[in-house]
Amino acid sequence: MASSELPDCDSPAAVLAFATARRAVAQRAEIDVLEAALVWASMHPEESVADAAPTTGLMFGELAVPLAGEGAPLVAEFAPMEFGAALGMSTDSARSLVGDALELAHRLKRTWNLVRAGKVPLWKARRLAQLTTSLPMEGADFVDRRLAAFVGKISWAGIERLVDQARVAFDPEGAEKERREAADGRRFDVHTREAAHEGIVHVEGVLDLADAIDLDTAISQGAEELAALGVTESVDVRRSMAAGELARRQVAFDLRAEAGEGAASVVKARQVVIHVHLSHAAISRDEAGIAHVEETRSIVSTDQVRDWCGSETQVVIKPVIDLEAHHHTDAYAVPDRLVDQTRLTQPMCAFPWCERPARRCDTDHVTAHGDGGPTCSCNLAPLCRRHHRAKTHTAWTYDKTDAAIYLWRSPHGLHLIKEHATTRLVTAHPPDD
User: Fold this and answer.
1) Is 103 within the bounds of a domain?
2) Which of 14, 104, 188, 379 has a Cα at 20 to 30 A from 224?
3) CB 258 within 8 A of CB 264
4) What is the pLDDT of residue 288?
5) Residue 414 belongs to a domain with what CATH number?
6) Number of domains present in the structure of the chain
């Protein structure tokens, strides 16, 4: 075994001591980052928004927004964006970090003091802060006082019960609203953008109990009928196949219905709208190929694409867009072909660390059209609405240095490069103002 490169780690006990010490340093550093988030928030208070743009209407420009609960100070809307960029995190993650810091420092002061003293893990304190943000001030104080003596020891389920107790006691209307919102939070997600190479995706959802029972019954029935038709795969595989059949038929299963047995279920043709990039070898079938499918974040096999586009599938073929071509129009409005080219060249928001798909983004003029920026291939980029507004109403600026390479400059001097899906910080130490 090779000798250790760690200092003074020549025995098992020494390795444990070294790891424990380094972990303590890392935990202290995480707390320091939260302290820095508090200072950053204090440098961008509600008053800074009014000072920067006193005549800006509420529908435009930067706003002062609440990132923590009642009683915590408001913060300039775009302030977390730059803080997150410096730390290599998305705007949403930065907003959460700053919000958790404000919640702890202003509404959970006892817990925050315990965190700073190293007596409560930061991860638990941050999760607590996320739970109490929606409580009134009295409710947050109740939770903070009750947990002060043992927050580091109580189970997470116990913390959640205490927060629920505070919500009912101090905000009964809010408790009822939360119950209704829980129903509004029902969802059903099909994670096509995370498809594996084999063409398999994960599906998950939060359903009303009655709906869930009906769905389970329909899928179970479909799996049984597939077995009766001679399908020999396992129950789990047959259930997954039944879900697809249910989606295509959109009615209760009747896989064995025959034409003479009454009205049969209407089977809809599968509709596949995907953007596939194939090599010449894959197209000619000279060899097994890899398909790059825009609607997923993974590569899939060309055989899988052929299965998707089988004989019972309605296939829509769209014209190929040359990503190297340069298109131009004198108008401000971006034509569809330029929009498609921009989104295919840069498949996600061009802002640092943002992963919002380009098809859900605005098409932005890198150099504003009003400042002489042309509507052409070399001056367009996809920006999600939040980052589009930040570029428009704050000192964030950027240049497009290549087809999908963007150099960004933050209001306080950070320089970052976004290239396709990768962001890197060019200047880690911005100049002083």
Assistant:
1) yes
2) 188
3) yes
4) 57
5) 1.10.30
6) 4
